[in-house]
Amino acid sequence: MTKFLTYLLISSFILIGCSNDDDNTPSTNALQVNNKQPLGSSANDLLSATNFTSITIEMVSVQGFEPSATAVNGFRDFLQERLFKPDGITITQRSVPSSGKAPFTIEEIAEIENDTRTLFNEDGNITVYVYFADGSREDDTTEQVTLGSAYLNTSMVIYQGTLLALNARPNSPALSTVEIATLNHEFAHLMGLVDLGSPLQSQHEDEEAEGHCNVSNCLMEAAIQFGSGMMGMGDVIPELDPQCIADLQANGGR
């Protein structure tokens, strides 16, 4: 499914999407199989301490396309706000050479994960793989681009090449603002929002955008506006609205 964010620039609107694909073939490796499940199926495991008391985020970036330190810290803050992990939240980072495959299909991203992911669920620790790609999604157009995709239960990609290209436009928000919003939005899909594994506690799913919230300005809204300082909006990172938070809390989260 394709999900859209709206990125507000001084002169025009550019539709920005996140895309979720859960039809990749699971690995036959016994260690990996629990990390090769459908999107949203590990929502409770990510949110609660029932089965996993700690979490490790394995960030793998193409050389030159690493996230900003501000974005990593902002993402960590988001995880600490929402997850019950008494034994801690760890974020590891490393860089890898380019695959040379950009622009990417989601199947190619899954293949890159198979080649570069090294951490899997084990001994009370759940792991999430985040790949920062050096390019865009294959089906992007001049009017619509994809910032990130959550495509398996513990897998997501950030199209860092696209984020950098957008950041180069005049009057755009800070790169770290868009990075944090994209990381948080995609991880929220892993946590089961909206109605993707964390059951609705109230009716707030957007009828026209499956998996998204119908509350204005929510992080999970299908259309989120990021405004430049010149427009008086500042670099504001959207937050989850109370109804989304209630869904997460009912499924074991904070």
Q: What does this protein structure show overall?
A:
The chain has 254 residues and is an alpha/beta fold. Helix content is 25%, strand content 21%. It has one domain (2-25, 37-250): Collagenase (Catalytic Domain). The protein has an eight-stranded mixed beta sheet with strand order 4-3-5-7-6-2-1-8, with helices on both faces. It starts with a strand and ends with a helix. The relative contact order is 0.21. Mean pLDDT is 86; it is low at 1-15, 21-28 and 225-233. It comes from Aquimarina algiphila. This is Membrane metalloprotease.
Mean pLDDT: 86
**CATH superfamily, called what?**
Collagenase (Catalytic Domain)
**How would you characterize the largest beta sheet?**
8 strands, mixed
Number of domains: 1
Work out the radius of gyration.
Answer: 17 Å
Given the C-alpha coordinates, what overall shape results?
globular
Number of beta strands: 8
Helix content: 10-25%
CATH fold category name: Collagenase (Catalytic Domain)
Strand order of the largest sheet: 4-3-5-7-6-2-1-8
Count up the helices: 6
Oligomer: single chain
Task: List key phrases describing it.
alpha/beta, single chain, 254 residues, Membrane metalloprotease
Brief sketch in words of this structure:
The protein is 25% helix and 21% strand. It has 6 helices and 8 strands, in the order E-E-H-E-H-E-H-E-E-E-H-H-E-H. The two termini are 27 Å apart.
Please describe the topology of this protein:
Blueprint: E1 2-8, E2 13-19, H1 43-47, E3 54-62, H2 69-82, E4 89-96, H3 106-116, E5 125-132, E6 144-152, E7 155-158, H4 160-167, H5 175-190, E8 225-226, H6 242-250
Parallel strand pairs: 1-8, 2-6, 3-4, 3-5, 5-7
Antiparallel strand pairs: 1-2, 6-7
